[in-house]
Design a protein that fits this description.
alpha/beta, 7 strands, five-stranded mixed β-sheet
């Protein structure tokens, strides 16, 4: 693979930095059905025409452009729903961004909050790639806070 920071998360999910044209052809031959890109099409190392290159080998392509300085909880939620749906349908997925920092943070949150993995499992592959900077640490905390169970008031029988 030409892509940097390539990691297998599960049999059905791999992550990396920016793919090359050769990588896309190889992924198709290896049985991948879907590529999800979290980088902006204007990223400095973006592959021009990536969506078309993926379509040309009859694979699915999704782009959720996450601005490095402005990640949004809704983008994580969209990515998590997409991953869950694709897995449920038996797809083999390659999830990438520019260098696997955005992706590794999203995968950490997906494993921790959606799949309910223990912290020592959920941190793979993020722990091997980077320690989130303050902006991304704040984003992670914001997502985690949104997923915390709300307290239940037994008197009013309502969530708070």
């Amino acid at each position: 693979m030409d892509a940097v920071n390539t990691y297998q998360v599960f049999d059905w999910l791999w992550t990396s930095g920016q793919l090359s044209e050769n990588d896309i052809a190889r992924l198709h031959k290896e049985g991948f059905t879907t590529i999800i890109n979290l980088a902006l099409p204007t990223s400095s190392n973006a592959l021009k025409g990536e969506a078309e290159l993926v379509a040309n080998v009859q694979m699915n392509y999704f782009n959720i452009p996450v601005e490095w300085e402005l990640p949004e909880v809704e983008q994580f939620e969209l990515c998590a729903k997409l991953l869950s749906d694709l897995h449920e349908c038996g797809h083999k997925v390659w999830l990438h961004c520019a260098i696997n920092m955005r992706v590794s943070a999203f995968v950490y949150l997906y494993r921790k909050l959606v799949l309910k993995h223990a912290e020592n499992e959920a941190v793979h592959p993020m722990v091997n790639i980077w320690t989130p900077n303050p902006l991304w640490q704040e984003f992670i905390e914001e997502v985690v806070a949104r997923y915390k169970p709300k307290p239940y008031d037994h008197e009013t029988h309502k969530l708070h």
